């Protein structure tokens, strides 16, 4: 199978090699020093300000979305949440469950957030802002400089779900005034699912100390305290963290995060230019699109996007990424993260062309 989903994505040979090793015991100085290195490289790749720290959460990306909502916000906050797709909707649900007072900025799915959307919230006493970097369900990349400036001007704490956008798209916590940001192991880092990571700047560290979260497993101050000696309060996905260490060092040696952005950009461009003659409409404008994923709507009358996913899987041995909810029958996605070659992209576009020939697309 070739995997064009947005996670778990195709892993490198080096990552897979490590996956067959025994899992070592982890309460050791040797493992602690690997964790310290993981922390410092991830902070560097997020371009986090001096004094930033990392929380290593064992749990998928959603665990760190929920952990962030619980540890950075309380009933005394008033937050803005951008809902431009299923992941934005998840942030809304988290604010509801944890009773964080919020205002939802609901976008037409596939459309960007604009200055006009934000203008009405200027000077209105908001204290938090929750948004994705890339809304993975639609492929929209939000204008994080615009959002960061808005938050800076209004003294708003900015929490960014960069789970899918990290590494694929340019991202700098420093430049974009981001206080806390998350990613997950099975997205662009191309590791097995199991871990998610939150980078906290000094404000975020202070905030979680004051909130006094009512949770044992999601208690960020406990993670930060144990993290000082390269440990976690509970048993982490040790194997994934060793694969992470190898991957981060390989990224660093291969030109750093800048080169990763470039590779994702080139893959996305190559794919988008090779489907120009096919019966698809881009779900989001190319100028608003992330390098992480392309969301496509089949344009021919009666073609069901989910059915295309099934045929491509069963008859061509390729996974593309189906959409859920309201978008399921209209939209599917092709991911550009993980270890994917141009030859594999050619194989996928050849499969689409074959479907056209068969009258199915
Ligand atoms: C994948 C993803 C998540 C996390 O999903 P999990 O299934 O919990 O790993 C969160 N946010 C975004 C934007 C994502 O793409």
TrEMBL record:
Domain of life: Bacteria
Cofactor: pyridoxal 5'-phosphate
Ranges for domain Aminotransferase class V: 30-320
GO MF annotations in UniProt: transaminase activity
SUPFAM superfamilies attached to this UniProt entry: PLP-dependent transferases (SSF53383)
Residues reported to bind substrate: 333
Gene3D superfamilies the record matches: Aspartate Aminotransferase, domain 1 (3.90.1150.10), Type I PLP-dependent aspartate aminotransferase-like (Major domain) (3.40.640.10)
Transferase is among the record's keywords: yes
N6-(pyridoxal phosphate)lysine modifications at: 187
InterPro entries: Aminotrans_V_dom, PyrdxlP-dep_Trfase, PyrdxlP-dep_Trfase_major, PyrdxlP-dep_Trfase_small, SP_NH2Trfase/AEP_transaminase
Matches recorded under PANTHER family: 2-AMINOETHYLPHOSPHONATE--PYRUVATE TRANSAMINASE
Protein name: Aspartate aminotransferase-like enzyme
């Amino acid at each position: 199978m070739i995997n064009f989903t947005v996670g778990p994505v195709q892993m490198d040979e080096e990552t897979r090699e490590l996956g067959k090793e025994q899992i070592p015991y982890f309460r050791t100085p040797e493992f602690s020093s690997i964790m310290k290195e993981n922390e410092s490289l991830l902070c560097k790749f997020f371009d986090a300000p001096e004094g930033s720290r990392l929380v290593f959460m064992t749990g998928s990306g959603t665990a760190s979305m929920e952990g962030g909502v619980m540890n950075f916000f309380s009933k005394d906050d008033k937050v803005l949440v951008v809902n431009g797709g299923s992941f934005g909707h998840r942030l809304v649900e988290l604010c509801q469950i944890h009773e964080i007072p919020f205002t939802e900025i609901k976008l037409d799915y596939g459309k960007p957030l604009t200055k006009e959307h934000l203008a009405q919230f200027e000077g209105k006493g908001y204290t938090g802002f929750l948004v994705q970097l890339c809304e993975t369900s639609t492929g929209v990349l939000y204008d994080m400089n615009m959002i960061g400036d808005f938050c800076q001007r209004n003294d708003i704490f900015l929490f960014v779900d960069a789970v899918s956008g990290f590494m694929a798209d340019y991202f700098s916590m420093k430049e974009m005034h981001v206080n806390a940001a998350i990613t997950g192991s099975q997205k662009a880092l191309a590791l097995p699912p199991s871990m998610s990571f939150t980078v906290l700047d000094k404000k975020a560290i202070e905030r979680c100390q004051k909130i006094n979260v009512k949770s044992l497993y999601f208690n960020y101050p406990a993670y930060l305290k144990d993290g000082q000696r390269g440990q976690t309060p509970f048993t982490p996905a040790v194997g994934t963290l060793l694969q992470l260490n190898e991957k981060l060092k390989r990224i660093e040696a291969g030109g750093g995060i800048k080169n990763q952005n470039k590779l994702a950009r080139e893959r996305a461009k190559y794919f988008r230019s090779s489907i120009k003659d096919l019966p698809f409409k881009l779900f989001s404008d190319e100028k608003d699109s992330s390098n992480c994923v392309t969301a496509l709507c089949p344009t021919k009358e009666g073609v069901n996007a989910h059915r295309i996913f099934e045929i491509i899987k069963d008859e061509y041995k390729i996974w593309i990424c189906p959409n859920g909810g309201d978008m399921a029958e209209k939209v599917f996605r092709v991911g550009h993260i993980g270890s994917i070659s141009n030859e594999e992209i050619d194989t996928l576009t050849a499969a689409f062309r074959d479907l056209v020939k068969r009258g199915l697309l």
